[in-house]
Amino acid sequence: MNPDARLRRALVPVDPPDGFAHRVRTRLERDARAQARPQASPWRRWGAAAAVLIALLGGPLAWREYDQRRQALAARAQVLLALQIASRELNSVHRRVVRPTAIRLEPQRSEVLAKEGRP
């Protein structure tokens, strides 16, 4: 069958059944009533106002807390860095002081062992 003929037959105008317009209007009215926004209660308004007030007053307090914590963490990082540097320097000095002493003691120890007849 010709596709054009099938398309014409499928698109033939058809009259709607009796009462169709009335059913459509009643359904639209019923849906409009169901979707109508209920009147906002005073409790919701007061709740929204309280939330805004808390956000306005609490925002700066939360920011101050955040800023203090950030500064404390930065100070902690600086202290840890200072301790690392001090530890590195102390280890360096310790190596300079202890190594020469250990080197001087080694020959003496070997001399003692040689006197005792030990290898």
SSE arrangement:
Layout: H1 3-10, H2 20-35, H3 42-116
Describe this structure in words.
The protein is mostly helical and 119 residues long. It has a domain at 68-119. It is built from three helices and no strands. The protein is elongated, with a radius of gyration of 46 Å. The termini are far apart. The model has no long low-confidence stretch (mean pLDDT 83).
What are its keywords?
elongated; 119 residues; mainly alpha
Low-confidence stretches: none
- What is the helix/strand order? HHH
Nearest-angstrom radius of gyration? 46 Å
Largest sheet: none
Large-scale geometry? elongated
Oligomer: single chain
Short summary:
This protein has about 120 residues and is mostly helical. The chain is built from three helices and no strands.
